[in-house]
Amino acid sequence: MNRINKVFEDKKNEKIMSLFITAGYPDVTETVDLVLGFERNGADIIELGIPFSDPLADGPTIQYSSNIAISKGITIQGIFNMVVDIRKESDIPIVLMGYINPMLRFGLENFFTTAAEAGVDGLIVPDLPLDEGAMIEDLARVNGIQLIYLIAPNTSDERMQLSDQKSDGFVYCVSVTGVTGAREGSEVQQSVDKFIQRSKENITKNPLMVGFGIKNFTDAQNISKEVEGFIVGSALIETIRNSYPKDHWKEEVFTFVHQLKFGYPNT
Amino acid sequence: MSVITKTSYSEPNQKGYFGAYGGKFVPETLIPALNELENAYKKASEDPEFEKEYLYLLREYVGRPTELSFANRLTDHYGKAKIYLKREDLCHTGAHKINNAIGQILLALRMGKKRIIAETGAGQHGVATATACAKFGVECIVYMGEEDMVRQKLNVDRMRLMGAEVRGVSSGSKTLKDATNEAIRDWVTNVEDTFYIIGSVVGPHPYPMMVRNFHRIIGDETKRQLMEMEGRLPDYLIACVGGGSNAMGIFYPFINDDVHIIGIEAGGLGVHSGQTAATLTKGRPGVLHGSMSYLLHDQEGQIELAHSISAGLDYPGIGPEHAYLHDTKRVEYRAVTDAQALEAVSLLSRMEGIIPALETAHAFAWLEELMPTTSSDEIVVLNCSGRGDKDMETISKYL
Fold first, then answer.
1. CB atoms B27 and A150 under 8 Å
2. Can you spell out the DSSP letters for B272-304?
3. What is the pLDDT of residue B1?
């Protein structure tokens, strides 16, 4: 069974926590260690971001981390090597998340076969909506990479159903219309309830993961109460940004992760 | 030269593709907005009332039709084919950009959108949008790279004077590419009440088609005017190409005709200098700002910084229809350098008393290459897309 499906199967009684980290941030030498530490502290799925110079769906935090990673010389092959290293020690589901242009330049066929060999489980492409998905759907299927589509509050019922059909692993609910980034809890909560309700009615095949704007345990619990789990990205990167490269910065980050999942710090 | 017959050119297709280029590479949140726009545009373009209003404004407010001027001294200078200039520099606000801004704002109002956003590089599209918004009393926010705000301060002041809010963009290269990213992020966030007026034949479908259609009046007028003056079509058609809106506007009505069409890109310091904006000459296919087209990008697919002395051409992408016309060889694309463009500014100023925009000067610079190959019974039409007042600070440095 695919590692993503297995995690939802194994952890039916808890909220699945997926963490997004920009590969190569805060340094290319830190990513593997961070991912393994996230897993030890409660992460159930890892979304590894492929940095892009022009991330038009992302807010300032992920733009910043992407620029740092690019300036440190991140490459797609380098990211695959990181996945290989993570796989030596861990079976945590790994989803790559990136814009289509770097994948096109790498060569789509090469991208999917190398990803599968490295041990990647899924893929999210924020600038590849259903309308353009045909360019990678067959390659994903043949190589056993699960494609995860995003739905937003303004997505129609019909498109939600189509996203469910075309997705494997889970469907990603973007809780607000907007770019990625941490938001005030109330701003997210008010608009999200109706949307989650509608998503649940239309998404029947896949689990639902909700993301965009979650910054602490309380947000995460509130927003994900009706779905299988939640995704945190910008708030995690902000935490790294505030602590790196102080002494014990990684402990601070891992404490944040542990609190995010369990509501209390690791001991 | 390959000539596409009348029945064969019907780009783009239903999905917004010009051959392999175009499409809708945007976050899911924008898909409903693009579909809404596509439907509204389709309805409007079938409604004679919409056309009437659009043409009325272009006539009474923009000052169309613009003249097709015979450039007698420039013609004598080269001593070969006759040169005609399509005078888009005479449009209100000083460039062709206003045609599209008027078209899109009319559409925005029909759709009930109360908030207009735009991106701008040289500031011409920003000014055109601010102008249209002032004319209709609509809120206007223009994203502009901080680097461009310095290079084009006059246009920043013009926009602000007309009540637009100019938001400086400090990410990335602080130029048009980054202003476009920021405008798209704004649109993703405020998608319900906001209309994004894109300034060139770029972006996701239906923008490349719609912007082209709002500018095709340039080519339609040119055809009619030249028929009246010369009784025939031109042999050559030349325009500068950044994103490519003035070029698509004048080229499109001639696509099915036996006319040699040439688009001139900004070579910057030289096509192979690493400091260039010659996307078709130097780039490769890829996806930026919502569509598949040629792009300047590195081995890792990271977008490279373009360079041109002209802020309006300083863009690492190009409209998808140009990519298609390039691959099918229907249009010939060439590049000229910053230095060649500056020489052309001075030549045209002295010969014709027209100070062209730095963008436009790139098209003029190609006459040096083209004219010796022409003969005196031929006709060249050049799209004089904008005037150079906004560039005087840059130009002054080289006088």
1. yes
2. TTT----HHHH-EEEEETTEEEEE-B-TTSPBP
3. 42
Q: Name A232's bridge partners.
A: A19
Given the cut 0.85, state whether the ipTM is greater than it: yes
pLDDT classification of A189: cutoffs 50, 70, 90: low
Q: What is the pLDDT of residues A6-63, one digit of tens each?
A: 999 999 999 999 999 999 999 999 999 999 999 999 999 999 999 999 999 999 999 9
Q: What's the token pair of residue B329?
A: 């060889």
pLDDT at position B362 is 98
Which CA distances in Å does B47 have to B16, B50, B177, B181, B205?
A: 21, 5, 34, 33, 21
Decide if A8 touches B, using CB distance below 8 A: no
Residue B226's alpha-carbon distances to A54, B38, B301, in angstroms, are 43, 34, 44
Q: Write the single-letter amino acid at B216.
A: R
Best mutation target among A72, A127, A195, A202 (most B Cβ atoms within 10 Å) is A127
What is the distance in angstroms between the Cα of B66 and the nearest Cα belonging to chain A?
A: 37
Q: Could you tell me if residue B163 is left (phi over 0), alpha (psi between -120 and 50 degrees) or otherwise beta?
A: left
Nearest to B286 among A104, A132, A159 (CB): A104
Strand B236-240 with A208-211, pairing: unpaired
Q: List phi, psi (to 5°) of A195.
A: -60, -45
Q: Please state, as a whole number, how many other Cβ atoms lie within 10 Å of the Cβ of residue B143.
A: 24
**pLDDT at position B47:** 98
**Using a CB-CB distance cutoff of 8 angstroms, which residues of chain B are in contact with residue A149?**
28
Say if pTM beats, i.e. exceeds, 0.90. yes
* Residues of B known to be catalytic: 97, 119, 385
In contact, B308 and B277? CB cutoff 8 Å = yes
